[in-house]
Amino acid sequence: MNRGRARTVAALVALFLLVVGFFLTSTPASAADDENPYRISGNVQLDGEPLAGVVLTVDGPGGLQEVETDENGQWRIGVPERGEVYIVTLDENTLPEGIAVVDEASEQPNVREVEMGQGGRATVNFFIGEGERNVTSFFDQFVQRIVQGVSFGLMLALAAVGLTLVYGTTGISNFAHGEMVTFGAVAALMLVGPASLALPVWLGYPLAVLLSAGLGLVLDAILWRPLRRRRVGVVQLMIVSIGLSLAMRYLYQFFIGGGTEQLPGASAEKIPLFGAVQLSVIDLVSLGISIIVIIAFALWLTRSRIGKATRAISDNPSLAAASGIDVDFVVRVVWIVAGALAGLAGILYAYYRPGIRWDMGAQILLLMFAAVVLGGLGTAYGALVGALIVGILVEASSLWIPADLKYASALFILIVILLFRPQGILGRRERIG
Predict the structure, then answer these.
(1) Degrees (nearest 5) of the Cα angle 409, 240, 253?
(2) Residue 149 and residue 290: Cα distance in Å, rounded?
(3) How far apart are CA 309 and CA 216, in angstroms?
(4) 267-326: per-residue pLDDT in tens?
(5) CA–CA distance from 374 to each of 19, 284, 381, 426 (Å)?
(6) Could you give the percent of the chain with pLDDT greater than 70?
(7) pLDDT tens, position by position, 55-87
(8) What is the pLDDT of residues 108-141, one digit of tens each?
(9) Which residues contact 290 (CB under 8 A, 6 or more apart)?
(10) Angle 380-327-216 (CA atoms, 0-180°, nearest 5)?
(11) Contact indicator for 158, 294 with CB cutoff of 8 Å
(12) How many CB atoms neighbour CB 41 within 10 A?
């Protein structure tokens, strides 16, 4: 396959990911309302006249959502949880010139906190009039998004590294990896949640990661190893992984329902760090854990005997087996490591969203594949670089495009880069055929 044809194939694959990602990330309003049964609504008016096209964001369990007022100045948005605090922010840049939100009793009049009561309905109105706007500068917003993007990228890297390790050693494009991420969050909920075992966090979360590692071992033992021994083709293995993904996803829904559950401390207050950057204690701990685990993984991959064997199998499985490396044993270890990393990523993602849903892993599956392909298929360090790029692009892009479409932006950039470098950033150029 020549270089031009490789670029075309890579671009077509990335275009497919973009189209699928667009339909997965841009949910129609009616579908979102069915998914989130509770409502926050309000009016934006000036002297009794409705203001259309004013943008508001709602942040809380379920993640950041964006809504725009209609021709009557009314807006509404679905949220997943009762008894939780949501932060509603009116974007004053979308108000007419010389008009601002007026409230002398508040330092940030365009920001409201509302608690969703047991009735499942809440109303937030803003007082509009002439005054000075409380607008955060574009630079401060950009810095905040970059910090959030690095945090998201490191969390995504934990999952993407496991995905690329499995691909490098077995050739499997594991579409069930998103469900392995979900498993870590669900296991943590079962262990530390108030309606379950209610273990302390310092004990429950490591146990959840161990259970996730066990899931990787079990899946390899009962499914992937028998299929490898039967020499099942790569395409058939990919189809099996898609079926496994669907089965696990709806199994989660059966046990935890279709709502959103929260881990302890998910609604921690933000702490000002520098400039406009604000992070909670949970965010700082997540950053620290991600960095420590990634460094430990890099040392394991480059210094340990099994890590070196893993790299040898990724380069050439036949030559590694001929050199005396126990390929089956190393692949088994890879599945354990991939499961543990995916489980840890699931716990961190449950705090980042925030919240646990039965389909949370599927929401970032395409981003994991984008990170892996962008960095270079089968390369662990490439997955890390790709995940950081994807994380920053996803967060920064919401400054220019609607928040509902921010995941699609990373897939678009993937197409552009693969047009010029089909093998990925750290991948090696190969000639096939």
Answers:
(1) 70
(2) 13
(3) 19
(4) 777 777 777 677 888 889 999 999 999 999 999 999 999 999 998 888 888 888 888 888
(5) 17, 27, 11, 8
(6) 86
(7) 888 887 777 788 889 888 888 888 877 767 788
(8) 788 888 887 777 788 888 878 765 555 566 777 7
(9) 151, 154, 155, 157, 158, 348
(10) 60
(11) yes
(12) 15
d(CA 326, CA 330): 6
Which amino acid appears at position 429 of this protein?
A: R
Bond prior to 200 in cis (omega within 30° of 0): no
Tokens of 79: 């949220």
Please report how the helices 406-420 and 3-25 are oriented relative to each other, as an axis angle in degrees rounded to 10: 180
What average pLDDT does the segment 419-432 reach? 68
Q: Yes or no: say if 378 and 168 are a contact pair by the CB < 8 Å rule.
A: yes
Q: The tokens of 378 are what? A: 């089968």
Which of the listed ranges 6-15, 188-197, 330-339 does the model predict with the highest average pLDDT? 330-339
**What's this model's pTM, rounded to 2 decimal places?**
0.77
At 233 the pLDDT is 87
Mean pLDDT in the chain?
A: 82
C-alpha 354/C-alpha 62 separation (Å) is 6
pLDDT digits (tens, 9 = 90+) for 27-61: 444 344 445 778 898 888 887 788 888 888 888 77
Cα 318 from chain centroid (whole Å): 35
Cis peptide before 50 (omega within 30 of 0): no
One DSSP character per residue, 163-191 reads: HHHHHHHH----TTHHHHHHHHHHHHHHH
Q: How many CB atoms lie within 10 A of CB 286?
A: 22
Neighbours of 409 (CB within 10 A): 21
Tell me the two tokens of residue 96.
Answer: 């007419």
Q: How many helices (H) and strands (E) does the chain have?
A: 15, 12
Give residues with Cβ within 8 angstroms of 250, minimum separation 6: 358
Q: What is the Cα–Cα distance from 404 to 178, expressed in whole angstroms?
A: 20
Residue 352 neighbours by CB under 8 Å, 6+ apart: 151, 152, 155, 286
Spatial distance between the Cα atoms of 84 and 278, rounded to a whole number of angstroms: 20
Q: Which residue shows structure tokens 């508040």?
A: 106
Helix or strand or coil: residue 131?
Answer: coil
Could you tell me which residues are beta bridge partners of residue 43? Answer: 74
